[in-house]
Amino acid sequence: MVAISAVLAILVWIAFSGALCAWSPLACRYLREAAPKVLVNLQWALAAIAAGFGFGFLLGWARVSRFVGLRAMSRGYTELIRGTPLLIQILAVFYLFPALNRALGLADAGADLPGTLDGFLNLGPSEFDLSGAQRVVIALILNTSAYQAEIFRAGFQSISRGQIEAATAIGMSQLQTMRHVILPQSLRVMTPPLTNEYIIMFKDATPLAFVVAVPELVRASVQFGQATQAILETYVFTAIVFLIFSLLLTGLLRFLERRYRIPGLGIAVRGRE
Amino acid sequence: MTLRTLWARGAGVRRLLRNLAAAGVVGIAAAIIISLAFPRSVAFWAVGAANTFILFAGSAALGLAIGFLVGWGRSAGPRLISWPLLAYVEGFRGIPRIVIVLLAVVIFPRIGLGIDWAVLWGILALGVSSGAYQAEVFRAGFQSVQRGQIEAATSLGLSYWQTMRYVTLPQTMRIVLPPLGNEWIVVLKDTSILILLPGFAQLSVPDVIELTKVAQTLQQATFDVTLWPVIFAAAAAVYLAMTLLVSGIIQYAEERYKVPGLGVMAA
Amino acid sequence: MIEVRDVHKWFGDLHVIRGVSFEVRKGEVVVIIGPSGSGKSTLLRCINGLVEPDRGEVFLDGSRVTGTRKGIENLRAQVGMVFQSFNLFIHLTALGNVTLGLTKVQGMPSEKAREVGLRLLEKVGLRDKAASYPAQLSGGQQQRVAIARALAMDPKAVLFDEPTSALDPELIGEVLEVMTRLAQEGMTMVVVSHEMGFVRSVASKVLFMADGQILEAGTARDVFENPKHDRIREFVSKVLT
């Protein structure tokens, strides 16, 4: 993996030097015009994971709580999110806001909805107007929270009962036990599935924003393809960009995994794939 | 075969029945909402759901076949075979499915599969993509069968194929079913990406439509903005019913391959 | 019954077996002892064709084992093998383990195979565990099932590769007991073992193997009490304390 990452790094360097532009002007243009949008995807994934970490923690804690109600609510939420496609979730959140505005008697969110009737009707912005990107990120956060909740749950449950009993016996409260005993251990075994979740978020989740026409790499690529009429080549470039970043991120993940792993300890999470 | 006797059959059956019940409840709720709020679209929803299921079944099956062969080739094959296979696996796992579908939409017409074949495009795109993930699962499964088991089988006089059939494969099945089941559910949900396929454009029943496209098309035709979340909630409910059904079946199958005394294999 | 003639084996540059020859007559119990890494396990596997020697030949009851591709399975079915790590099929019950070879290799109908299987499990004292899975059995029980499985093929000889080395001390006895009874019934056995008590009481012939060669062959008494090589003297004294 280290070797592959090195090769990729070299590839990226070559790409940014003049060599690529001489060989294929189309690729060069793509690199300058469309490819930088990959940063949007990376940022969205990061924002979603970060916020999802907090929510995931709370949901995961609720899942293992003593109270049946909390457990049920957490379980219901995660089952719902995990049982429905992310695209539907994005669409639902995206089109929730106009409905919210209308229901609250505010003017509809207008400008960010191309391809729908509202784009043609003369509706102005309102107080509740969240940009397309913001709505997408919200949907991503809701989504990743459910999956991270599972990761947290597995992490919490991997701590043996005995340690929790011991902590209680010393007189620690639930909160203290969580803070000083459970979390420190859980976080270390949770690093691999969490970084894996980030990669999945970046690679599989963010591209879906294309369907709601919010600017990110796939949308930029499609526009580029239509502008240059070199659709196939453009899609291939898009695939390559994603592939490079996936491999780089995976390489980073393996490296982190090896550094922070506790030998003999790990959790098996019913993941996305 | 009453409900009571089924209930007594074991944990796997119970879970399946629970999932079936939940799926039924959710599905019926969705049906009620749709027929009340959007009565004229009921037929399209039905076709959409059916098509989603067909696309799912085809893609998952294709992915299974590819995954099995590639996983086997990777675990047991000579380097000449396993390196190209590695490229396939790492390549398709690193490319977003939506990009693969876009590529399919561009490539297939050029090689002679016209718009009439849109369903096949979808199945091929998802199937080949899923095959890469399933291949990894199979590879791990094959490699985790201990060498000693193979040695013992060989020393009893079992041939290569007999060993494969009576020793390696049954043990592999036990190990691969949970992660494979996961991936199949992912494929079911990823059929929503096929919204990008053309030939799904007109809202007329003979055309192939999948569920998400039905929802989106309906949303675009609905002036009442407050109904939009309802549409997607209904779509979510239909998907949920389907995933509950499929995962119930998968968990039942997992149960049948469990070996008493051995713990649950890490997914 | 078994003839090993000048067998050599290399693993890469490592000359693991350097010209080993010996004979096992029908009904004999030959035990191979020696330090680890001396090639004993590999030698055993040359006898039933699991490992192909680079030079030399192995004969089983007159039939050539080395260099045979077709029909090797037939030959393997005539020699049973019991492994150090049991290698029971984890997805089959004890009975299933014993009958797999009968039904799939010998083509026996399953009812008959069941009968034979139960009889053999009875013989090793585990008839009541017929429906248990290996994960539910103790080490000693698993090894006894493994012996029953090997015996099911009605072999001409049985090979044992350190059958008790992976067992807890208190479980060793039950396995040795089965092996001793087997020897007394006249089964031809080639055993690699460290259990000196067993070796003394049951072995017809002891071979001391070190560095890929057989340094000495003789009765247990000869090898233990009057070894010709100091190496053996050392080994024996260490193992017997």
Using the coordinates shown, work out and report the CATH topology of chain A: MetI-like fold
- The total beta strand count of chain C reads 10
Which chains make the largest contact? Answer: A-B, 49 and 51 residues
The number of helices of chain C is 9
CATH homologous superfamily grouping of chain A: MetI-like
The share of residues in extended strands of chain A comes to: under 5%
**Radius of gyration of chain C using CA atoms only:** 18 Å
Major β-sheet profile of chain A: none
Largest sheet: number of strands, sense, barrel closure of chain C = 6 strands, mixed
Low-confidence stretches of chain A: 108-127
> Which structural class should the secondary elements of chain A be placed in?
mainly alpha
Order of helices and strands of chain A: HHHHHHHHHHHHH
Percent of residues in beta strands of chain C: 15-25%
By helix and strand content of chain C, what is the structural category?
Answer: alpha/beta
- Sequence of secondary-structure elements of chain C: EEEHEEHEHHHEHEHEEHH
The CATH class of chain A: Mainly Alpha
Q: Mean of residue pLDDT of chain A?
A: 79
Topology summary:
The complex is a heterotrimer of chains A (273), B (267) and C (241).
Chain A: H1 2-16, H2 18-23, H3 25-33, H4 38-63, H5 68-83, H6 86-94, H7 96-103, H8 117-120, H9 132-157, H10 161-170, H11 174-205, H12 217-228, H13 231-260
Helix pairs in contact in A: 1-13, 4-5, 4-9, 4-11, 5-9, 6-9, 9-11, 10-11, 11-13, 12-13
Chain B: H1 3-8, H2 11-37, H3 42-76, H4 79-94, H5 97-110, H6 118-143, H7 147-156, H8 160-190, H9 211-221, H10 228-257
Chain C: E1 2-11, E2 14-24, E3 29-33, H1 40-47, E4 55-60, E5 63-64, H2 72-78, E6 79-82, H3 94-104, H4 110-123, H5 139-152, E7 157-161, H6 169-184, E8 188-192, H7 196-202, E9 205-210, E10 213-218, H8 220-225, H9 230-240
Parallel strand pairs in C: 3-8, 3-9, 6-7, 7-8
Antiparallel strand pairs in C: 1-2, 1-4, 4-5, 9-10
Helix pairs in contact in C: 3-4, 3-5, 4-5, 5-6
